[in-house]
Design goal:
By secondary structure, the protein is an alpha+beta fold. Helices cover 35% and strands 29% of the residues. It has 8 helices and 14 strands. Strands 3-4-2-1-12-11 form a 6-stranded mixed β-sheet, with no helix packed on it. The protein has a 6-stranded mixed β-sheet with strand order 5-6-7-8-10-9, with helices on one face. Strands 13-14 form a two-stranded antiparallel ribbon.
Length: 344
């Protein structure tokens, strides 16, 4: 599949020019940042060339605000569903699910307005955000205008890349994406997921940012489902739950009868406040090299990283680097072992 990420700021007649470029380059889908689209003026994107001539668009705007904005445009034969969108303290985001010929890709769009927060705050926010979405979505392709100088060796750059490494993520853009010579627009995938980046190259400079053209190969997942029962205990009102427990009254001289009645009353209160529900969950095949010891090593690395982000102690940074290197060494070794067994 062919895709790109494109910053639309300052493009004259961006819709017609950009839409023509997508058709000429035979782009399957494109992540657009700084669209300046507005929910109050839906005609801006409904009549856009990104929404016509074989393409359709899905926008992730924030209301009552000028500027910014993220959108995803794709060919009409691709099924698209917006999973989530919003604004964190330092960036905007949108998450879309794309299905094409039985293959699923989750595209995460990021736009960081430089004036919204400091680079330091952005690194903290994006670290927490990635930690939340990684267990939730498969076949992740994270793209957009991060507005962080990934290649200048600053604190933000170094710690951002450490964050990616700790979470098993790989950044693919290794060229300037801005007229000032900086790499600001990024393409990120999981090192072990089904999205393989075959090509990542500089495209046309539509504005002061260039389009980043990416060709990906996506493996079809072996997916099954199972039905599980659960109780949503987080929504229980502690005060109301305590009141109902206090109302329980059991009277019996027989111990066994008393215990059975008491358990029945407790169960009734639990069923009232957190009724049992059924949910169908997708079960994806775990990569064969992700054995329990490696998963624990990954979790340990992420815990150390979170502590370092919180307290900024030099010893914690040293501990993180040691844990990260150990995790990479273990996963590389196990991956080679599993693949060599499969091969021979």
């Amino acid at each position: 599949m062919s895709c790109l990420t494109l910053n639309c700021r300052s493009i004259v007649n961006k819709d017609n020019f950009g839409g023509q470029y997508l058709r000429e380059q035979r782009i399957h889908f494109a992540l657009l940042t700084e669209t300046w689209y507005s929910d109050e003026k839906q005609h801006q994107y409904e009549t856009s060339d990104f929404n016509q001539h074989g393409y359709k668009i899905s926008v992730a705007n924030h209301k009552n605000k000028i500027g910014g904005g993220i959108a995803l445009t794709c060919k009409t034969e691709i099924k698209i569903r917006k999973m989530d969108h919003g604004t964190k303290q330092s960036f905007e985001f949108g998450i879309w699910k794309l299905i094409f010929k039985g293959i699923t890709v989750h595209v995460v769009g990021i736009y960081r307005p430089p004036s919204l927060a400091t680079c330091k705050q952005f690194v903290i926010d994006i670290s927490n955000f990635l930690e939340d979405i990684l267990p939730t979505y498969s076949n992740l392709l994270i793209m957009g205008d991060f507005n962080i100088h990934i290649d200048n060796g600053s604190w933000a750059s170094t710690n951002f890349q450490n964050c990616l490494h700790a979470m098993g993520l790989e950044q693919h853009v290794n060229f300037s994406t801005h007229t000032a010579g900086n790499c600001l627009d990024l393409v990120i995938t999981e090192s072990t997921n089904g999205v393989c980046v075959l090509k990542c190259e500089q495209g046309h400079f539509f504005s002061d940012h260039c389009a980043v053209h990416v060709v990906i190969n996506v493996k079809k997942e072996n997916i099954t489902s199972k039905t599980v029962q659960f109780r949503n205990k987080k929504r229980i009102s502690h005060s109301e739950f305590s009141d109902d427990l206090a109302k329980i009254s059991v009277d019996s001289e027989d111990v066994n009868t008393f215990v059975n009645l008491f358990e029945s009353e407790i169960q009734s209160v639990i069923d009232k406040h957190a009724p049992s529900k059924e949910q169908t969950r997708i079960c994806r095949t775990q990569k064969p090299w992700f054995i329990e010891s490696i998963l624990e090593s990954k979790r340990k690395t992420e815990r150390i990283w979170r502590k370092y982000i919180l307290y900024k102690e030099p010893e914690q940074l040293k501990e993180f680097k040691e844990a990260r290197n150990k995790y990479f060494k273990e996963i590389d070794s196990e991956k080679k072992n599993k693949l060599s067994v499969i091969k021979f």
